[in-house]
Amino acid sequence: GGKDRRSGLILTIPLCLEQTSMDELSVTLDYLLSIPSEKCKARGFTVIVDGRKSQWNVVKTVVLMLQNVVPAEVSLVCVVKPDEFWDKKVTHFCFWKEKDRLGFEVILVSANKLTRYIEPCQLTEDFGGSLTYDHMDWLNKRLVFEKFTKESTSLLDELALINNGSDKGMQQEKERSGDLNFLPSVDPETVLQTGHELLSELQQRRFNGSDGGVSWSPMDDELLAQPQVMKLLDSLREQYTRYQEVCRQRSKRTQLEEIQQKVMQVVNWLEGPGSEQLRTQWGIGDSIRASQALQQKHEEIESQHSEWFAVYVELNQQIAALLNAGDEEDLVELKALQQQLSDVCYRQASQLEFRQNLLQAALEFHSVAQDLSQQLDGLLGMLCVDVAPADGASIQQTLKLLEEKLKSVDLGLQGLREKGQSLLDQISNQASWAYGKDVTIENKENVDHIQGVMEDMQLRKQRCEDMVDVRRLKMLQMVQLFKCEEDAAQAVEWLSELLDALLKTHIRLGDDAQETKVLLEKHRKFVDVAQSTYDYGRQLLQATVVLCQSLRCTSRSSGDTLPRLNRMWKQFTITSEERVHRLETAVAFHSSAEKILQECPEQPEAFNEMEQFDEIETVGKSLLDRLTVPVVYPDGSEQYFGSPSDMASAAEHIREKMKLVSLKKQQLRQPDATTPES
């Protein structure tokens, strides 16, 4: 970095005690002399050969070598000698005498006298100067510079080759021959970073001091390195920017090609194996289990499609991103790919959804058909069991249950028709995604199956309805039969109650003829009511006979009810006749007694015949005797009218009236007894 008084560069050659290789020294000198610019070289060099630690013959050889290496550039050679060591030998070889032959001046000088030729500020401390110099630092910087120069120059060539090849529209086959041919041998970012660090270091040393802040001027090689580094950096940045654009374009093209390849893979699979899978699945099954098996198979197909649909979603996102940041020339191609992919995927998804809906509708149809079939089986089983109810209420309950089951079957058949029609409508639309395949035969089998199921259910339902009509009629007749039997039993009960009322409450015989006649008239009406009850019971029992014949069954109660009815009616008629006889006797008694008791005593001629009194007495006694006699029935049982006190009261009233008649008779006899005495 030092300079002589002519502004020539100073070259220092330190020699050591070890053997010095002249070849290595020659190569080193060639390298060092190649660093300065031609302008610097024109000013010449001052060479300092430090021989203080070396031998004279080595120094001499080095000086002579300078003649061969740099004769034109060297202007002065200063050989630094050791103190009092080479004095005797100098006389044997004087370099100043050889100036013309060597081409440069050679002087022997001690280190402390070197400042006579070179300024102290241009000498290092080794020679008593003040120039700051760190050889290892210079060497490291030089190695960095050499490395940067080599790498950047090679990188520039590679980038230029890549960029120029891209600009000239190189064939894609060459571009695809290998990614290694497209990538530079070194990382451009690393080289640029190294160059910036080197330039920063060079620029910093130009303005700042080193080792304590002593200001110093940079060496010419460093000044020369700065513009070289800056020029290389500018070229690198330019080529790297172009390279980045080339990479971006290539990456975009590669990405576009990859997307196109993936799109075609998705499209080819969906239109190929995917569509073929759907074309082979056209059946709907003939039962719930068959439909479920088809649904499971369809789920497997959907699972395979889902993987490709996931790829479609990813591709669609990538295409959308490219569309947002893409160039004008790529928009048309990207939109075409996106449209093609979307059309195929949506069409295939629609087919899958249609198939899934069709299978679900078929499953619902078969489920409703199975439920309806079970309902019909239950109804048929109920109709096949003979009816043996205990009473009319159970028949009504059974009939209600039968009607409910029939109504449930009607609703089930209506639901089956709705499901079937919906399924038929979907099947009729199946040709819209058949891809040209004739599905008429397959659809006809499905349609025939659906219509066959609905027709079969309709026939079964019709047969059950016919059987229900017959069963309903039979059950209604049975209800009527039980009703007749119940009403007939009720008629017996009513007749029994009438008989009981006749015996317990119809006991009065009346206080006079008029009252007795009224009681007799009421009794006849009472008998009419009983007669109507008996006739009603007889009619009901006759109806039970007809119903039993129609139902071909025997009544459990009619055979017992008719004898009871006849027996009760017989007892009632006997009791009624007894009551009529007593009332008629009472009427005769009261009428005769009242006639006698009401006739005037001044007409004795009316009582000429005493037999009338005797007749009244006879009738009265007969009535009294009859009141004490019970009613005897054909089975030997006996019943009395009222209680003994009631009969005693009625008898007492008759006796009183008989006393009045007897008194009247005595009064009439007294005049007849006094007439002869007079």
TrEMBL record:
SUPFAM superfamilies in UniProt: Spectrin repeat (SSF46966)
Keyword Flavoprotein (UniProt): no
Alphabetical list of PROSITE patterns matching this protein: CRAL_TRIO
InterPro entries, alphabetized: CRAL-TRIO_dom, Spectrin_SESTD1
Gene3D superfamilies registered for this protein in UniProt: 1.20.58.60
Assigned keywords, A-Z: Repeat
Record-level Gene Ontology MF annotations: phosphatidylinositol-3,4-bisphosphate binding; phosphatidylinositol-3,5-bisphosphate binding; phosphatidylinositol-3-phosphate binding; phosphatidylinositol-4,5-bisphosphate binding; phosphatidylinositol-4-phosphate binding; phosphatidylinositol-5-phosphate binding
One Pfam family linked to the record: Spectrin_SESTD1
Domain CRAL-TRIO: 1-135
The family this protein is said to belong to: Belongs to the SOLO family.
Name of this chain's protein: SEC14 domain and spectrin repeat-containing protein 1
UniProt organism field: Cuculus canorus
